[in-house]
Design a protein that fits this description.
With about 250 residues, the chain is of the alpha/beta class. About 45% of the residues lie in helices and about 15% in strands. A hairpin with a 7-residue loop joins strand 7 and strand 8.
Length: about 250
Protein backbone atom coordinates (compact mmCIF):
# COMPACT_ATOMS: atom_id res chain seq x y z
CA UNK A 1 0.00 0.00 0.00
CA UNK A 2 2.86 2.34 0.87
CA UNK A 3 4.55 1.73 -2.51
CA UNK A 4 1.28 2.40 -4.36
CA UNK A 5 0.80 5.66 -2.48
CA UNK A 6 4.38 6.75 -3.33
CA UNK A 7 3.78 5.95 -7.01
CA UNK A 8 0.57 8.00 -7.11
CA UNK A 9 2.26 10.84 -5.20
CA UNK A 10 5.12 10.98 -7.70
CA UNK A 11 2.75 10.97 -10.68
CA UNK A 12 0.80 13.82 -9.11
CA UNK A 13 3.77 16.01 -8.16
CA UNK A 14 6.19 15.49 -11.04
CA UNK A 15 4.15 17.40 -13.68
CA UNK A 16 3.53 20.21 -11.18
CA UNK A 17 7.18 20.54 -10.22
CA UNK A 18 8.23 20.76 -13.87
CA UNK A 19 6.35 24.03 -14.22
CA UNK A 20 8.80 27.01 -14.21
CA UNK A 21 6.20 29.16 -12.42
CA UNK A 22 5.70 26.59 -9.64
CA UNK A 23 9.46 26.15 -9.29
CA UNK A 24 9.93 29.92 -9.02
CA UNK A 25 7.24 30.21 -6.32
CA UNK A 26 8.52 27.22 -4.30
CA UNK A 27 12.15 28.28 -4.45
CA UNK A 28 11.15 31.84 -3.60
CA UNK A 29 9.51 30.56 -0.42
CA UNK A 30 12.59 28.47 0.40
CA UNK A 31 14.82 31.54 -0.13
CA UNK A 32 12.62 33.55 2.25
CA UNK A 33 12.93 30.77 4.84
CA UNK A 34 16.74 30.74 4.49
CA UNK A 35 16.95 34.52 4.87
CA UNK A 36 14.66 34.37 7.91
CA UNK A 37 16.86 31.75 9.58
CA UNK A 38 19.99 33.71 8.62
CA UNK A 39 18.80 37.00 10.11
CA UNK A 40 17.29 35.49 13.29
CA UNK A 41 20.52 33.67 14.15
CA UNK A 42 23.71 34.83 15.80
CA UNK A 43 26.70 34.70 13.47
CA UNK A 44 30.32 33.89 14.07
CA UNK A 45 32.53 34.27 11.02
CA UNK A 46 36.12 33.14 10.50
CA UNK A 47 38.05 34.93 7.74
CA UNK A 48 34.77 36.19 6.26
CA UNK A 49 36.39 39.62 5.74
CA UNK A 50 38.61 37.96 3.16
CA UNK A 51 35.51 37.53 0.98
CA UNK A 52 35.61 41.22 0.11
CA UNK A 53 38.88 40.83 -1.77
CA UNK A 54 37.15 38.33 -4.09
CA UNK A 55 34.66 40.87 -5.44
CA UNK A 56 36.99 41.60 -8.35
CA UNK A 57 39.47 38.75 -7.93
CA UNK A 58 37.79 35.47 -8.99
CA UNK A 59 38.28 32.32 -6.94
CA UNK A 60 36.80 28.82 -6.81
CA UNK A 61 34.65 28.41 -3.69
CA UNK A 62 34.41 24.74 -2.71
CA UNK A 63 32.11 23.15 -0.15
CA UNK A 64 30.46 19.83 0.58
CA UNK A 65 26.97 19.15 -0.79
CA UNK A 66 25.42 19.04 2.67
CA UNK A 67 26.73 22.49 3.61
CA UNK A 68 25.17 24.77 1.02
CA UNK A 69 22.25 26.39 2.84
CA UNK A 70 23.95 29.27 4.67
CA UNK A 71 26.85 29.84 2.29
CA UNK A 72 24.64 31.42 -0.40
CA UNK A 73 23.41 34.31 1.82
CA UNK A 74 26.95 34.75 3.17
CA UNK A 75 28.36 35.23 -0.35
CA UNK A 76 25.43 37.49 -1.24
CA UNK A 77 25.94 39.71 1.83
CA UNK A 78 29.65 39.96 1.04
CA UNK A 79 28.81 41.29 -2.43
CA UNK A 80 30.83 38.65 -4.28
CA UNK A 81 29.54 38.10 -7.86
CA UNK A 82 29.63 34.38 -8.59
CA UNK A 83 28.31 31.45 -10.61
CA UNK A 84 27.31 28.08 -9.18
CA UNK A 85 27.80 24.69 -10.86
CA UNK A 86 24.54 22.72 -10.71
CA UNK A 87 23.38 19.46 -12.27
CA UNK A 88 21.04 19.29 -15.29
CA UNK A 89 18.69 17.00 -13.37
CA UNK A 90 15.30 18.49 -12.36
CA UNK A 91 16.48 18.81 -8.74
CA UNK A 92 19.57 20.65 -9.94
CA UNK A 93 17.47 23.04 -11.99
CA UNK A 94 15.33 23.79 -8.96
CA UNK A 95 18.48 24.48 -6.95
CA UNK A 96 19.65 26.79 -9.72
CA UNK A 97 16.37 28.69 -9.42
CA UNK A 98 16.94 28.95 -5.66
CA UNK A 99 20.49 30.25 -6.10
CA UNK A 100 19.22 33.01 -8.39
CA UNK A 101 17.47 34.54 -5.36
CA UNK A 102 20.95 34.95 -3.85
CA UNK A 103 22.47 36.47 -6.98
CA UNK A 104 24.25 33.28 -8.09
CA UNK A 105 24.01 32.39 -11.78
CA UNK A 106 23.99 28.72 -12.87
CA UNK A 107 26.50 26.70 -14.88
CA UNK A 108 24.64 23.50 -15.78
CA UNK A 109 26.38 20.14 -15.64
CA UNK A 110 28.38 17.89 -13.31
CA UNK A 111 31.31 15.49 -13.26
CA UNK A 112 29.02 12.72 -14.50
CA UNK A 113 27.06 14.71 -17.10
CA UNK A 114 28.23 17.56 -19.30
CA UNK A 115 31.66 17.70 -17.63
CA UNK A 116 33.42 19.16 -20.69
CA UNK A 117 30.87 21.94 -21.19
CA UNK A 118 30.99 22.78 -17.47
CA UNK A 119 34.76 23.03 -17.56
CA UNK A 120 34.70 25.22 -20.67
CA UNK A 121 32.02 27.55 -19.29
CA UNK A 122 33.62 27.73 -15.84
CA UNK A 123 36.99 28.68 -17.30
CA UNK A 124 35.32 31.36 -19.44
CA UNK A 125 33.49 32.78 -16.40
CA UNK A 126 36.72 33.03 -14.40
CA UNK A 127 38.98 34.30 -17.19
CA UNK A 128 36.69 36.60 -19.18
CA UNK A 129 33.95 37.65 -16.78
CA UNK A 130 36.25 37.80 -13.75
CA UNK A 131 33.60 36.04 -11.67
CA UNK A 132 34.04 33.40 -8.98
CA UNK A 133 32.69 29.86 -9.32
CA UNK A 134 31.03 27.85 -6.52
CA UNK A 135 31.24 24.04 -6.58
CA UNK A 136 29.94 21.34 -4.23
CA UNK A 137 32.92 19.03 -4.61
CA UNK A 138 31.11 15.81 -3.61
CA UNK A 139 27.93 16.52 -5.59
CA UNK A 140 25.53 15.81 -7.05
CA UNK A 141 25.41 12.23 -5.69
CA UNK A 142 28.63 11.54 -3.78
CA UNK A 143 30.64 9.88 -2.47
CA UNK A 144 30.02 12.09 0.56
CA UNK A 145 32.94 14.23 1.78
CA UNK A 146 35.01 13.16 -1.23
CA UNK A 147 36.62 15.91 -3.30
CA UNK A 148 36.21 15.27 -7.02
CA UNK A 149 38.63 16.69 -9.56
CA UNK A 150 36.41 19.37 -11.13
CA UNK A 151 37.56 22.23 -8.90
CA UNK A 152 41.21 21.26 -9.40
CA UNK A 153 40.80 21.41 -13.20
CA UNK A 154 39.32 24.91 -12.92
CA UNK A 155 42.20 26.02 -10.69
CA UNK A 156 44.88 24.42 -12.87
CA UNK A 157 43.57 25.99 -16.07
CA UNK A 158 42.85 29.50 -14.74
CA UNK A 159 45.34 30.06 -11.93
CA UNK A 160 42.44 31.03 -9.62
CA UNK A 161 42.83 29.68 -6.08
CA UNK A 162 40.52 27.16 -4.42
CA UNK A 163 38.87 28.51 -1.26
CA UNK A 164 37.29 25.90 1.09
CA UNK A 165 34.05 27.09 2.74
CA UNK A 166 31.92 25.51 5.44
CA UNK A 167 29.23 26.39 7.96
CA UNK A 168 27.81 24.73 11.03
CA UNK A 169 25.09 25.56 13.56
CA UNK A 170 24.38 25.15 17.26
CA UNK A 171 20.77 24.11 16.58
CA UNK A 172 20.25 22.17 13.38
CA UNK A 173 18.45 19.45 11.46
CA UNK A 174 20.69 16.90 9.72
CA UNK A 175 18.49 15.33 7.07
CA UNK A 176 18.46 11.57 6.65
CA UNK A 177 20.06 11.47 3.20
CA UNK A 178 23.49 10.66 1.75
CA UNK A 179 24.94 14.16 2.21
CA UNK A 180 23.34 14.80 5.64
CA UNK A 181 22.14 18.22 4.50
CA UNK A 182 22.39 20.58 7.48
CA UNK A 183 19.50 23.02 8.00
CA UNK A 184 19.90 25.43 10.94
CA UNK A 185 17.01 26.01 13.30
CA UNK A 186 15.77 29.48 14.25
CA UNK A 187 17.53 31.59 16.88
CA UNK A 188 20.69 29.52 17.07
CA UNK A 189 24.33 30.32 16.34
CA UNK A 190 25.69 29.90 12.83
CA UNK A 191 29.44 29.62 12.30
CA UNK A 192 30.96 30.24 8.87
CA UNK A 193 34.57 29.47 7.98
CA UNK A 194 36.25 30.78 4.83
CA UNK A 195 39.51 28.87 4.40
CA UNK A 196 42.85 30.06 3.11
CA UNK A 197 43.31 30.04 -0.70
CA UNK A 198 44.92 26.93 -2.20
CA UNK A 199 46.70 27.16 -5.56
CA UNK A 200 47.01 24.31 -8.06
CA UNK A 201 50.05 24.50 -10.32
CA UNK A 202 49.32 24.18 -14.05
CA UNK A 203 51.98 21.47 -14.37
CA UNK A 204 50.30 19.06 -11.93
CA UNK A 205 49.18 15.75 -13.47
CA UNK A 206 48.73 12.13 -12.44
CA UNK A 207 50.00 11.29 -8.95
CA UNK A 208 50.94 14.90 -8.18
CA UNK A 209 47.40 16.07 -8.97
CA UNK A 210 45.94 13.26 -6.86
CA UNK A 211 48.18 14.27 -3.96
CA UNK A 212 46.89 17.85 -4.21
CA UNK A 213 43.30 16.58 -4.40
CA UNK A 214 43.82 14.53 -1.23
CA UNK A 215 45.39 17.53 0.49
CA UNK A 216 42.32 19.66 -0.27
CA UNK A 217 39.98 16.88 0.85
CA UNK A 218 41.84 16.51 4.17
CA UNK A 219 41.62 20.27 4.76
CA UNK A 220 37.88 20.36 3.99
CA UNK A 221 37.01 17.32 6.10
CA UNK A 222 38.97 18.73 9.05
CA UNK A 223 37.24 22.08 8.57
CA UNK A 224 33.81 20.40 8.78
CA UNK A 225 34.72 18.06 11.66
CA UNK A 226 36.20 20.86 13.77
CA UNK A 227 33.17 23.09 13.25
CA UNK A 228 30.66 20.32 14.01
CA UNK A 229 32.54 19.12 17.10
CA UNK A 230 32.01 22.53 18.72
CA UNK A 231 28.26 21.82 18.76
CA UNK A 232 28.51 18.01 19.24
CA UNK A 233 26.69 17.42 15.97
CA UNK A 234 26.15 14.04 14.33
CA UNK A 235 29.34 12.64 12.78
CA UNK A 236 28.64 12.86 9.02
CA UNK A 237 29.59 9.63 7.23
CA UNK A 238 32.12 9.83 4.42
CA UNK A 239 32.40 7.73 1.28
CA UNK A 240 28.73 6.86 0.77
CA UNK A 241 26.94 7.65 -2.49
CA UNK A 242 23.30 8.61 -2.99
CA UNK A 243 22.50 5.21 -4.55
CA UNK A 244 24.27 3.30 -1.78
CA UNK A 245 22.37 5.26 0.85
CA UNK A 246 19.02 4.49 -0.83
CA UNK A 247 19.89 0.82 -1.13
CA UNK A 248 20.98 0.64 2.50
CA UNK A 249 17.69 2.12 3.70
CA UNK A 250 15.62 -0.12 1.42
CA UNK A 251 17.01 -3.15 3.25
CA UNK A 252 16.07 -1.81 6.66
Amino acid sequence: MKKIFKRIWKKFWRPILRSPVIQWVLMGLVALMIWFIFFTSKHRFTNVKSLKQYRKKPVIFVFFHGRTVMLSPTIKCAGVPAYCVTSRHKDGRMMAQLQKFFGLRPIYGSTSEGAVSVLREGVRVIREKKRSVCISVDGPSGPALHVQNGALYFARMTGAPIVPCCFSASRAHLLNRWDRLLIPKLFGTITVNIGAPIYVDASLHGEALEKKRQEIEDIMVKQLRDMDSEFNLFHVESGITANEFKELHRKK
